[in-house]
Design a protein that fits this description.
The chain is about 45% helix and about 15% strand. The protein has twelve helices and eight strands. The chain has an eight-stranded mixed sheet with strand order 1-2-4-3-5-6-7-8, sandwiched between helices. A hairpin with a 5-residue loop joins strand 1 (about 70-75) and strand 2 (about 80-90). It is elongated.
Length: about 325
Amino acid sequence: MRNKHLAIRALLVLVIIFVLSVLATSWYMVNTALTPNGPQRDMLWTDSLMAARYPTEHNWQRELYKEHRLLDTLITDQEGNRLHAFYIPADSATNKTAIVVHGYTANAMRMMHIAYLYGHQLGYNVLLPELEYHGASEGDAVQMGWDDRIDVLQWMEVANNLWGGHTDMVVHGISMGAATTMMVSGEKTPDYVKCFVEDCGYTSVWDEFAGELKTKYSLPTFPVLNIASLISQIRYGWSFQQASALKQVAKCNKPMLFIHGDKDTYVPTWMVHTLYKAKRGTKELWIVPGATHAFAYKTAPTQYTNKVKAFVDTYNQ
């Protein structure tokens, strides 16, 4: 009888240790993923990176500074966070406007190569918002595009008002910015928003984190991801399943260009095929040979520019 009681106690101890380990792992995951220590607010590091990676586009950025054409503005979101954006008026007056959305642990300046595409190459006005917890924007955590979609709706209005109130607008995002773009595309957007471009966005936060758990840590999704998602729901008001670009893009009724590198392993290339299939109506897909994650423009800048130009010119008149 004594041995039986000892066995039960040992089993209970093991169960408690297991439960505590799972809770600790899930808590650690949420903190690491949504409140990372990284370069998202480091503008000096960003400047050095962009100068090395995109020298032509960076020289254009320097000219903007000299000409006092790289300006900034602020909004306040629904939670009371002050959010920051840069904006760049076109060389000549135009109603064509692009909102360019950065990725995870990045900031607006990490998107200056896409701003160059629209502002210098295509003659657009450009607005580059900084999402919560990035750049000069406030916020207690990365929102992975979900709450950000509401902020981008507000930035649309700001951009439209900045340039006369009668713009033709495209929203273009990369990585988490692409997921944000797809998430906002499923909302009711103003008539002046004509089309969307998403570059290497994920299907959902759940899918992206599940892939990271498997490839980086060799962990199953259950129960770690389930508990982490619940923690996110309690702390930030949204779950990993809820934050779905796939569900949102299925509701999008405006044209969308999908771009993805065929060597992308961070947001695996299979995701874009799933997203493309879910999107109804007008859509185009371009798989970029040899491009890794978020490097489609770097891999094929001329083709990238031409593809985007042909797409947006069709809808931004």
